[in-house]
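RETRY 2/3 - previous attempt timed out on the joint model. Re-submitting the same 870-residue input unchanged.
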Amino acid sequence: MSQALRVGLAGLGTVGGAVFRLLSEKAGMLAARAGRPIAVTAVCARDRMRDRGLDLGTVTWYGDPVAMARDADIDIFVEVMGGGDGPAAAAVEAALAAGRSVVTANKALLATRGVALARLAEASGATIGYEAAVAGGIPIIKTLREAVVGNRVSRVYGILNGTCNYILTRMEEGLSFQECLADAQRLGYAEADPTFDIEGHDSAHKLAILAALAFGTEIDTASIHLEGISSITPADLSAAEELGYRIKLLGVARRTESGIEQRVTPTMVPLVSAMAGIHGVLNAVAVDGDEVGEIMLVGPGAGGTATASAVVGDIVDIARGGPRPATFGQPAQTLTPYRAARMRAHEGGYYIRLSVFDRPGAFAAIARRMAEQSISLESIMQKDGHDRDGSDVRARRVILITHETTEAQIRRALDAIQEDGQIEGRPQMIRIEKP
Amino acid sequence: MSQALRVGLAGLGTVGGAVFRLLSEKAGMLAARAGRPIAVTAVCARDRMRDRGLDLGTVTWYGDPVAMARDADIDIFVEVMGGGDGPAAAAVEAALAAGRSVVTANKALLATRGVALARLAEASGATIGYEAAVAGGIPIIKTLREAVVGNRVSRVYGILNGTCNYILTRMEEGLSFQECLADAQRLGYAEADPTFDIEGHDSAHKLAILAALAFGTEIDTASIHLEGISSITPADLSAAEELGYRIKLLGVARRTESGIEQRVTPTMVPLVSAMAGIHGVLNAVAVDGDEVGEIMLVGPGAGGTATASAVVGDIVDIARGGPRPATFGQPAQTLTPYRAARMRAHEGGYYIRLSVFDRPGAFAAIARRMAEQSISLESIMQKDGHDRDGSDVRARRVILITHETTEAQIRRALDAIQEDGQIEGRPQMIRIEKP
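RETRY 2/3 succeeded.
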C-alpha cells in the first residue's frame, strides 16, 4: 500500500472534531477504500488547552493556520475554521501557493474568492475540494463537476437553507412566522440573530457557487436578487395548497438568453413535484441537464457529522491520487464573465395575494389592469369574510395565479392596481417554479 | 492538452446512438472538462447497413464485439449492447483481460458477474464504470463509491423501476392495476410482456449491485425476496393514504445483525417522507450512512439520453486519468461473502388488509391471534359495506397497521387467522419502511 496521506486540519469545532474522529475511528475502512492510509499529522486551533475529547497526542499543534498551511509536513490542508476573510482565507491561499491541495467547508470563502482561489490552485497544481461548502452532506458538487459533465445545464435550484424550510414546514400547521422562528431558535435550528438565514444570504452564498459550476461563469454573489421569508403568512401557505402549490425558499440559477438569472426568493412549487415533498430541516438541490433531464438530491444541509462526511469524501478523492477536475469544472481562465439577466426579464407564473376593498367595481378594476399587461389568469380565488392576518374587515382576500408572463409586466400591473386605490396594503407576489 | 482518449463503442441502439451523438456534438465542451479530447474511434453493431443518422465515416467498424475489445486501437471499451450473457459478457471480459477499462450500462451483466469482472479488472489494472447500469441518470454509484466513502452504510433503498412507479401513481386515481398496466404499455413505459418489471426482477438486479457496493459484500441476486405489484388494489392505496402512507415498489437492502436483508416488495412509506413524493416514471434511491444520515437521489431511471449522460460521466472520469475507485469501492478480494438475513427475521411495521365475515366474534378472534404473537396495533380501520374489490357482501374490509414486529410473528398470526375461518380469501400484507 502507498504512503499515508498527511492531513493538516485547521479548525477543531463541531465539524473539525467530527472530521478528526471520523478519520481516526474509521482509519482501516478508509485505507481500504482510498488505497492508502490517511492520517491527521497536524492540527490548528486557537485554544490548545481546551478538552475536546480528541486524542491529539501524536499530531503537531499549530496556533497559526497560515504557518501550518505553509510549513507543516502535510499533503493536504483541511480548512473548517469558517469566515470568508481573515485567517481562513490567508491560510487557504498559503496552502495553495505551496502546491498543497485544500479541502474546505467554507461557503463564504468560495462565494467571495472562489475564482481567485481556483486560479491559484491551477497555477501550483493543487486542487480544491469544497463538497461540504454547499448543502452539507448532499454530493451536489460531485454531481455537477463529475456526474453530469456531459450535460449543458439550464437550471440549478433548490432548498439551500434548512432553517427556512423548517420554519415554512411548521407554518403549514397554521402557525405564524414569528412563532415558528422562535421554535426554530429553541431547537437550535436558528441563530439568535436569524437575519443571515431568513433573509436568504446563506442560500445566496451556496447558489452563487452552484451557478458558477453549473454554467462555467465567474462567481457573482452580489447580483443575486434576494427576498426573505418573513413576509410569508399562513394564509399564503394555505391558499397555495388549495391551488396545488407549496411555498419554499428556493435559490434558483437559470441560464437565459440575456444572461444568468440568480435569485433567492419564496417560491411556489407544484404539490406533485418532488421538491414540494421536502419537509423540515432537509436541503434539496435539482439540476436540469439537456441530456439527463432533471435530477434532484436530498439530504441534511448542515450538522457536524454530515459536513464531516462530505469533507472526508473530498479527502479520499485526493488520497486516491491522479488529476482531479478543475475547481469549477473547467480551467479557471475559461470561465466566462458573469452576465446577469435583468430580474424584470424573469419569465414564469405568479401568485398574487391582494386585500381588495369590498365595493362595486374593485375586482373589475384589478382584472382590467392585468389585461392591460396581457397577463392571463390560471385561477382566481376569493374568500368571503375578513382577512385572518388582521387586515380590515372591509377588505376581501383575493388570490390570483397567472399564466406565464414577465416580471416587468407583473410589476407594472401591480403598481397600477396599487395606484387605483382598490386594495389595502401592498400586494403579496410569489414566483412559481416548475420542474 | 494530452492525447485523445480513444473510445470503442459496442452497441448502436438507443443508448449507443445517444452516446455517439453526445460525444461528437459536445466534443469541445467535454475536452475542456476532461482535460483531453475524447473520440470514438471504433464501433460495433450487427447491421452495418442500417441508417442510424450517425456520421460513422472515420471510425473503424467491427461486427464482433470481442474482436473490437481485443484488437481495436482503443483505450476504453463502452458496452451498451445489453444481455447478461453471450457477446456482451465475452467482450467485456476480453477488454478487461487486455487491460482496457470498461464503461457499461448493463445491469444484468453486473448483477450476475460483477465480482468476477471486478477481479479481472484489478488483475489487469483496468477499471469498470457502471453508473448507467443502476437508475439511469441518477449518480448513485458515484455517490456510494466516492461521496459517502467515510460512512458505514446501514441501508440503501428506493424506487428502482419507473414502470411500476408509474402504475402505482396512476392507481392512486382509483384505476385498477390492469387498466394502469395497459396504459403504461400504450405509452411505451411497459413491455408487451411486463413480467420482468412488475414482478420485481428488474429492481432486483439493481438492488443486488447497490447492496454489494453499500456493504462491501459479494453480489447475491438469487437470494432477494421478491413480491410484485400485481396484488395491489386501489383499495390498498386509498386505505394507505387515509392512514398516512403511500405504497411504492421498493428495493430495500439492509445490514442486520444476522446478515444482509434484500427484498423487492410493495412497501408503505410515510406520506410526509420525500420517497412518498416521487411520482410517475421517476426513480429514487436513498442511502443511510452513519455520518451523513439519509440522503436521497431522484431522477429518470431510463431513457436513451439520461443513460448516455451517465455513460459519458464515467468516460470523462477515466479520461481525466489517475486511479479510479475499486469496482465495488474496495479491492474485490476484500469483499465478504454474502450472508443473507432470514426474511422471517425482518423487523418492521406491517399493513394488513382482511375481508372479515360480518358475524359476532370475528373481530375478537383476529385481535386474539395478533395478541398471541405479541403484535400491537398502531391503527385499526373498519369500513362499512362490502368490499369494492368484489368480495362477498357479508365480508367487511378491516385494515390493521401494526407497530414494529417480526415477519415470523406476522406470518404465524396470519396463518392462525386464516385457519380460524373468519376471513374471506387471503390476507393482504404490506411491509412499512420509514426514513
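The first strand of chain A starts at residue 5 and ends at 10. Closing ticket.
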